Amino acid sequence: MSNIEVPKRRYPFLLAVGVTLLLGAWLMTACSSVPKAAPAAAPAATKVAAPTKAPEPTKAASTSAGQAVTETTAMTTSTAMTTSEAMTRSTAAGAASLIALYKDAKLGDILVDDQGMVLYVFDKDVKDKSNCSGDCLKNWPAVTVADEAAKPAAGEGVTAELGVIKRDDGTYQVTINGMPVYHYIKDTKADESNGQGVGDVWWVVTTNGDKVTTK
Questions:
Q1: CA 20 to 30 Å from 181, out of 46, 57, 63, 105?
Q2: How far, in Å, are 16, 94, 138 from residue 87 at the CA level?
Q3: Which residues lie closer than 8 Å to 1 by C-beta, 6 or more apart?
């Protein structure tokens, strides 16, 4: 009878073992079926800011700059023209292309240049030679032409002999009957004869080339 009871006592133990194995197998299956966690995302790359572009000049600024350049150019051109005109007038003041007759109420028929400026001769000069230089020439500018071939033309009624000499300073001075002729600095407009008789050595000239001594 004892042999029969022993196997019966082993059933519960075997059953417990079997249940334990089944539970272990189920747990392993469950664990293997759980999805693995996704790897952590790499940190996003830092975006490098693009270099700041310098602001373009506004249209108004460009226009202003252009106007400034234009105005400056215009001013420069205007100044250059004024200077050129002044030089031309200064040169023309001592030059002559025509010797003409002028009827003066007091001095009679006397000679003037193509601008109407009265002509003078100097008692200290000699034929074909000027002795007026330095301060003298500042007050009595020589009547000049471009070169020896540029002898002034004689106007109607002018019978004096016209010629040209080369001065010591290299310029070419007009002569009347061989005597160098001049303007006077204080004659500021045509037909004035403020230089007549100055120092008793400066005289206007008649149409035939003689000096006039009337004061």
A1: 105
A2: 134, 11, 16
A3: none
Contact 203, 121 (CB under 8 A): yes
Q: What is the pTM of this model?
A: 0.58
pLDDT in tens, 114-139: 999 999 999 999 999 999 999 999 99
Contact between 185 and 138 (Cβ < 8 Å): yes
DSSP structural state of residue 104: E
Q: What are phi and psi of 34, to 5 degrees?
A: -70, 125
Is the separation of the CB atoms in 133 and 179 below 8 Å? no
Q: Where are the domains of the chain?
A: 96-212
Q: Locate 125 and state its tokens.
A: 């000069």
